[in-house]
Design goal:
Rossmann fold, about 20% strand
Length: about 220
């Protein structure tokens, strides 16, 4: 007697996009959860991304509720004729006392704390902020919920550099603690496939639709 194999879930494709450039990105200033809008270049990148993603047949479009991600997502949602769903779970990491400072200022003002941050200590919490472990748990829970809602479809997620760092590591099987060896440019297009809880990178940092993109991280 032969057993019928348990059917695999249909693959869910996540198109994950970092927000367009802001003046703070250009100035290498830590934004975290401070609500900074797109620059003129960021708006142009958002429009280019919307045009590049036209015809993908998204089942849904989600965005961090921070303005720079929302403004980036609006062009894609408009062209796809879909409502934009805002999710606080897709927010950038809260960097506590580092927020509002340039990276150099943060290193000078809080040298011991910044050294732990730069070393990617997963348990380190900047005063008033969020650890890498807490960020990873928040992002995993948020994305798993989105995948459950849209199993078998394609979903666009507009979010932030710190979130993309977590998603790439989850899909590539890399630990939180290793130095980053992949690019996270503003408005680049990244595809991840999820099947039965298994994450796979399909493509990363596609930017042919952009005249230029910054990876100040």
């Amino acid at each position: 007697m032969s057993l019928t194999p348990y059917p695999l879930a249909r693959p869910t494709r996540l198109c994950v996009v970092r927000h367009g450039e802001t003046d703070w990105n250009a100035g290498k200033r830590v934004q975290g959860q401070i609500d900074i809008p797109l620059s003129a270049l960021g708006h142009a990148q958002a429009r280019a991304t919307g045009n590049a993603l036209m015809g993908e047949g998204f089942a849904a479009i989600y965005s961090s509720d921070l303005v720079r991600a929302r403004q980036t997502a609006e062009a894609t949602a408009h062209l796809a004729h879909l409502p934009l769903q805002l999710s606080p779970g897709l927010r950038e990491r809260h960097y506590g006392v580092f927020q509002g400072l340039t990276y150099d200022e943060a290193a000078a003002r809080y040298p011991a704390d910044y050294a732990r941050h730069h070393a990617r200590d997963p348990r380190f919490v900047p005063s008033g902020g969020e650890s890498l472990l807490d960020l990873a748990a928040r992002i995993s829970n948020t994305c798993e919920d989105i995948v459950r809602r849209h199993t078998g479809g394609a979903v666009a997620l507009f979010t932030h550099g710190g979130v993309l760092d977590i998603l790439h590591r989850q899909a590539a099987g890399k630990p939180l603690t290793t130095p980053r060896d992949f690019a996270i440019p503003n408005c680049a297009i990244n595809w991840i496939e999820v099947v039965n809880g298994c994450w796979t990178l399909l493509s990363w940092a596609e930017r042919d639709h952009l005249a230029g993109a910054l990876d100040e991280l």
